[in-house]
């Protein structure tokens, strides 16, 4: 089976992007495919996605590896849409293919869009993920020049017995802008559309000005070629008053001068009344025909959109009061106008559009018509994307969450839920997801709604969300993401496991989150224990702090294990952790550091830790330090005893007063003075 022209075109485009063949050769194949394609449609619009190319909402050409690689290359260059119309010549296609075949580094600062603007190809439209768009400059209509008598050309002549389509044109008398051309009956070149020539001496008018849009003349109404000069308008009005002609009547023969009066009447055969053939219907507003989209036109401020839907029709312009016109030349069948490429862009109307998008969630929730539901879901997705790009976060979040909630409704059938899910996934593409994640900077309920949408999308959205968890400097955002992770499938276990096995930075970041109240305590203890076994000292230190916050027997067990760590900083963190737990069960483990072989700093840390336990069980070992006799006294022993007196007061238990009172009456003046000071602070 032969391939569709659109697929052949896509294959040539991908060959150019991937440099599988010279861009000029690929352009020749692509242009030939386009010429065949124009026989059945008027434009071709390709959306570039990581999963391939989409045309009219359907995947074009499947998921061949070449198509996927080419799409990925275009996305790297930030191209997300390409459009083609019949106005694209071979040179235009070749210019585009030459640009997209280059690597981003070869394109310069302007990128693909800068190169396309410089080349200015006709009949080709382009858009990027950054919101840039290119549309070709409009082509000006060719001016009509005067045609000498006997020459072939578009000369209006009376249609006496000729083929339908021309109406007699009265002489103008040489008004400015018109050229009177005698139409010899034997000269077939002076008849428009191949009609028989005018009788001898009958002048025909040739418009020397630029053509204007044609109006449809009533039946029997002589049609004059429009001229720009006011004098001509008056002359034509005098020659053929519009009010004096009834539909179906012939034009009265009232020559204005002698030359016209001498014109012999046509033969009886030719004098049969002729009915004016109406011109082709005027192009509807919004079709793009005859519209100059230059920078000064109000339609030049276009916004890139996802679909090619019809624009709302505008009221037709009122015709000129008296100036008649000729029928418009019919468009050639093999050269269709590029009207539908007008819809490649759409003039923004923010006020009404915002009102309509605000009503979409309610309409989507209420409708029971499947076809209508599909349309509303797609409209929600398109408007959400528009609001995302415009920075309207409130509207974007409302539409995205509406789709997510519809996709989860249990009272809807599977078809409805899948329709909403598909519409939501059309927004959750690789290029749009970063914009959705940026919405997390907003606080409150809105942040939870954004997380709801992202976790519903899953896959790449969750992966990007995990990366954002470790990169954002906002602690509140990190906590919000982690809460959603632990509530989701797997309870956040895959994320934590990857973080602990990854860099120390990520492991330490995750340890700040495992102590959140939303996390299962047993799971948190397991994660802290895994971190305590890390090879990185900073991770083990943070694991000690996390274990102390978790508390309980699980936290105590982790801290006791870390008391034997080879790093002094980790042991100190474990001592502080045990002290902060204020658990009497920790006293025996802290007391281990009070022997003579312990590090001086660790001994002082252990003494302070015993005092912060707030347990009466800490008083005996602390009093033992105060009463301990040292063979070699000195500053070290004295400082440790003074620290023990301070720790006795920190316990806060009633028995501490009695212990301090006994020390204050001792023989050591330094210790007695310190005991009295601490005792006074307890009053």
Q: Which short descriptors sum up this protein?
A:
Leucine-rich Repeat Variant; two-stranded antiparallel sheet; six-stranded antiparallel beta sheet; 47% helix; alpha+beta
Description of the structure:
This protein is of the alpha+beta class. 47% of the residues lie in helices and 6% in strands. Strands 3-2-1-4-5-6 form a 6-stranded antiparallel beta sheet. A hairpin with a 2-residue loop joins strand 2 (52-55) and strand 3. Helix 18 runs parallel beside helix 20 (552-562).
Helix/strand layout:
Layout lengths: L4 H13 L5 H15 L6 E6 L2 E4 L2 E3 L4 H12 L2 E6 L5 H11 L10 H9 L4 E5 L4 E2 L43 E5 L20 E5 L22 H10 L18 H4 L40 E3 L40 E3 L2 H17 L3 H21 L2 H15 L6 H14 L5 H6 L6 H13 L2 H12 L3 H13 L5 H9 L2 H8 L9 H12 L4 H14 L1 H11 L5 H14 L5 H5 L8 H13 L6 H9 L7 H17 L3 H10 L4 H13 L2
Antiparallel strand pairs: 1-2, 1-4, 2-3, 4-5, 5-6, 7-8, 9-10
Helix pairs in contact: 1-2, 1-3, 2-4, 4-5, 8-9, 8-10, 9-10, 9-11, 10-11, 10-13, 13-15, 14-15, 16-17, 17-19, 18-19, 18-20, 19-20, 19-21, 20-21, 21-23, 23-25, 24-25, 25-26, 25-27, 26-27
GO molecular function, one term: oxidoreductase activity
InterPro entries: ARM-like, ARM-type_fold, EF_Hand_1_Ca_BS, PBS_lyase_HEAT
Pfam families: HEAT_2
């Amino acid at each position: 089976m032969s391939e569709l022209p659109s697929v052949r075109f896509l294959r040539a485009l991908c060959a150019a992007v991937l440099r599988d063949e010279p861009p000029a050769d690929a352009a020749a194949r692509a242009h030939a495919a386009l010429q065949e394609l124009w026989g059945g449609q008027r434009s071709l619009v390709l959306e570039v996605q990581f999963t391939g190319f989409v045309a009219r909402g359907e995947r074009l050409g499947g998921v061949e590896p070449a198509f996927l690689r080419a799409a990925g290359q275009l996305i790297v260059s930030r191209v997300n849409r390409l459009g083609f119309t019949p106005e694209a010549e071979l040179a235009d296609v070749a210019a585009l293919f030459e640009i997209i075949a280059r690597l981003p580094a070869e394109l310069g600062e302007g990128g693909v869009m800068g190169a396309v603007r410089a080349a200015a190809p006709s009949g080709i439209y382009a858009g990027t993920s950054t919101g840039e768009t290119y549309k070709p400059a409009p082509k000006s209509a060719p001016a009509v020049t005067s045609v000498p008598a006997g020459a072939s050309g578009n000369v209006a002549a009376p249609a006496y017995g000729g083929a339908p389509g021309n109406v007699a044109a009265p002489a103008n008398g040489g008004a400015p802008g018109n050229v009177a051309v005698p139409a010899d009956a034997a000269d077939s070149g002076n008849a428009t559309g191949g009609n028989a020539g005018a009788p001898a001496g009958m002048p025909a008018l040739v418009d020397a000005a630029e053509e204007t849009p044609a109006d449809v003349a009533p039946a029997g109404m002589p049609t004059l070629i429009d001229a720009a000069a006011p004098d001509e308008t008056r002359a034509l009005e005098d020659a053929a008053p519009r009010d004096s002609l009834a539909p179906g009547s012939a034009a009265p023969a009232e020559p204005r001068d002698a030359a016209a009066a001498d014109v012999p009447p046509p033969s009886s055969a030719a004098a049969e009344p002729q009915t004016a053939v109406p011109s082709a219907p005027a192009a509807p507003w919004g079709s793009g025909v005859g519209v100059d989209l230059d920078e000064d036109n109000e339609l030049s401020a276009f916004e890139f959109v996802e679909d090619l839907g019809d624009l709302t029709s505008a009221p037709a312009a009122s015709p000129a009061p008296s100036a008649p016109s000729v029928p418009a030349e019919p468009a050639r069948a093999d050269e269709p106008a590029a009207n539908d490429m007008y819809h490649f862009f759409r003039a923004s109307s923010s006020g009404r559009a915002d009102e309509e998008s605000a009503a979409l969630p309610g309409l989507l929730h209420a409708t029971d018509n499947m076809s209508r539901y599909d349309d509303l879901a797609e409209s929600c997705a398109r408007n959400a994307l528009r609001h995302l790009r415009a920075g309207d976060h409130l509207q974007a979040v409302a539409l995205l969450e509406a789709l997510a909630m519809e996709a989860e409704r249990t009272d809807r059938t599977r078809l409805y839920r899948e329709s909403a899910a598909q519409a939501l996934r059309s927004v959750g593409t690789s290029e749009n997801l970063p914009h959705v994640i940026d919405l997390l900077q907003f606080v409150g309920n809105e942040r939870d709604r954004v997380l709801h949408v992202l976790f519903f999308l899953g896959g790449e959205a969750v992966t990007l969300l995990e990366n954002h968890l470790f990169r954002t400097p906002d602690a509140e955002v990190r906590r919000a993401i982690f809460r959603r992770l632990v509530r989701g499938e797997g309870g956040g276990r895959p994320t934590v496991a990857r973080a602990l096995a990854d860099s120390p930075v990520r492991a330490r970041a995750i340890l700040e989150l495992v102590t959140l109240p939303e996390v299962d305590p047993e799971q948190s203890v397991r994660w802290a224990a895994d971190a305590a076994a890390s090879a990185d000292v900073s991770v083990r230190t943070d694991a000690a702090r996390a274990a102390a916050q978790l508390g309980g027997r699980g936290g105590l067990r982790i801290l006791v294990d870390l008391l034997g760590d080879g790093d002094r900083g980790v042991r100190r963190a474990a001592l502080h952790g045990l002290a902060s737990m204020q658990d009497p069960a920790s006293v025996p483990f802290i007391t281990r550091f009070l022997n003579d072989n312990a590090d001086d700093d660790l001994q002082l840390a252990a003494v302070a830790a015993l005092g912060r336990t707030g347990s009466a069980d800490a008083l005996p070992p602390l009093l033992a330090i105060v009463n301990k006799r040292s063979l070699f006294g000195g500053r070290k022993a004295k400082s440790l005893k003074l620290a023990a007196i301070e720790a006795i007061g920190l316990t806060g238990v009633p028995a501490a007063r009695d212990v301090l009172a006994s020390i204050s009456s001792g023989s050591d003046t330094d210790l007695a003075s310190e005991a009295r000071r601490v005792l006074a602070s307890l009053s």
